TrEMBL record:
The lineage of its organism: Bacteria, Pseudomonadati, Thermodesulfobacteriota, Desulfobulbia, Desulfobulbales. It comes from Candidatus Desulfobia pelagia. GO terms for molecular function: 3-oxoacyl-[acyl-carrier-protein] synthase activity. GO terms for biological process: fatty acid biosynthetic process. This is Beta-ketoacyl-[acyl-carrier-protein] synthase family protein. PANTHER family: 3-OXOACYL-[ACYL-CARRIER-PROTEIN] SYNTHASE, MITOCHONDRIAL (PTHR11712:SF336), POLYKETIDE SYNTHASE-RELATED (PTHR11712). It comes from the Bacteria. InterPro entries: Beta-ketoacyl_synthase (IPR000794), Ketoacyl_synth_AS (IPR018201), Ketoacyl_synth_C (IPR014031), Ketoacyl_synth_N (IPR014030), PKS_Beta-ketoAc_synthase_dom (IPR020841), Thiolase-like (IPR016039).
């Protein structure tokens, strides 16, 4: 394989997704512009009901029910999203070689759902391990969702998962870009997946931290920046992209959603849970520098804000620091619609904004009734979409526990 220049242009040519309110990008975009949240309450083992985002999609469209039963929920979501992305990109396997195709999937966690379920199952049989499934080990290895995608599609190139907490989706996108530029692969299938609504432990842990959202109306539970926000709405979901080099995409006449022009990942090195705004600001500045852009050249910032008190404040401080005086930079949030999809969050939220390049609309942050003064930003788009003359650049923030930060910048494709 030939190593490409670090300046080789990398573009997005396909998107496949499963979100709590949609199972395709056009539907997702429409729901975001309409402000439609489909967060609902679910019953939790050992706990009361809690608001959560659950995906509804055609689970047997690309593999049989028996295969889904043997695999994982994350694998099921991943297989659906990857196939949808490849169909969307119109990939022809006579043009691309499956041995030179890489699959990189971001995960916040993996294996807790299967482990909790198996422990519960054997509890019904006096903890007799004879009832423990022999499928447990392949289900819980970290590369499982990426591996399930390769088995379904017959891809023989590299596959692995990228563990980067809630920045994992962005991290996998960056991994795909880097592998293309290195010449390690000719085609990258990358994104993020979350199956965390199946894990009692995740809900219980956020509740113990005082960070699990509560509201009488589950659709209003996710409310970043709002004075009355009280925590995270946990959601499942997935979003997978097809990345190609620009020259190969043009050669086959591909549709181009946008060009990846800037990216950064750094670490707070401060705390297991609490975010640190100054390091988030450094991350955004590094992404801007790599993109060769000034802050005022960013049209949309899609925020990571999850609805926790301190987390939202720290990110807003960071944005104010970097984008002070940028009168034409608008800010929105996607979690207000779909909750926090953990490892899938960054890529789902970026996808929800990609079509702004076509329609010039900035989807709104919903459920923002009373802005927390500590979350003040001059151009937060609240409750109603904002029409701009044009959108050329999007910066997508995605941060995670143990102090990991990521920022990705996508630019509207132009010659």
């Amino acid at each position: 394989m030939t190593k490409l220049s670090e300046n080789q242009r990398i573009v997005i040519t396909g998107v496949g997704l499963a979100a709590p309110n949609a199972s395709s990008l056009p539907e997702f975009r429409r729901k975001l512009l309409d402000g439609q949240s489909e967060i609902k309450e679910i019953d939790l083992r050992y706990m009361d009901k809690a608001p959560a985002g659950i995906c509804e999609f055609s689970e047997t469209k690309y593999r049989k029910k028996k295969e889904n039963k043997r695999g994982t929920r994350a694998g099921c979501i991943g297989v659906y999203c990857a196939n949808e992305a490849l169909v969307d990109a119109c990939i022809d396997w006579t043009y691309y070689d499956k041995s030179k195709t890489g699959v990189y999937i971001g995960l916040t966690e993996h294996g807790t759902v299967e482990t909790e379920n198996e422990v519960y199952n054997i509890s019904q049989f006096d903890y007799n391990v004879d009832y423990w499934t022999h499928h447990h080990n392949p289900r819980t290895v970290l590369n499982n969702p990426a591996g399930e995608i390769t088995m379904n599609l017959g891809i023989t190139g590299p596959h692995y998962s990228v563990g980067a907490a809630c920045a994992a989706g962005n991290a996998a996108l960056i991994q795909g870009l880097q592998m293309l530029r290195l010449g390690e692969v000719d085609l990258a299938i990358c994104g993020g997946i979350s199956e965390c609504t199946g894990s009692f432990g995740i809900f219980a842990s956020f509740k113990a931290q005082g960070a699990l959202a509560e509201h009488s109306d589950p659709k209003k539970a996710s409310r970043p920046f709002d004075q009355d926000r009280n925590g995270i709405v946990i959601s499942e979901g997935g979003c997978v992209y097809v990345l190609e080099t620009l020259d190969r995409a043009l050669a086959r006449g591909a549709k181009i959603y946008g060009e990846l022009v800037g990216h950064a990942i750094n670490s707070d090195a401060k705390d297991f849970v609490l975010p640190y705004g100054p390091r988030q600001a450094e991350c955004m500045r590094l992404a801007l520098d790599r993109a060769g852009l000034k802050p005022e050249e960013i049209d949309i910032i899609n925020t990571h804000a999850t609805g926790t008190k301190q987390g939202d404040i720290e990110e807003c401080r960071a944005i104010r620091d970097v984008f002070d005086g940028c009168e034409n930079t608008y800010i929105n949030n996607t979690k207000s619609h779909i909750g926090h999809a953990m490892g899938a969050a960054g890529v789902l939220e970026l996808a929800g904004n990609l079509l702004s390049f076509e329609d010039g609309l900035v989807h709104a942050t919903i459920n923002l009734d009373t802005l927390d003064p500590d979350c003040y930003l001059p151009n937060i788009v609240a409750n109603t979409p904002k029409q701009l003359d044009k959108v050329d650049t999007i910066l997508n923030n995605s941060f995670g526990m143990v102090g990991i930060n990521s920022a990705v910048i996508v630019k509207k494709y132009s010659f």
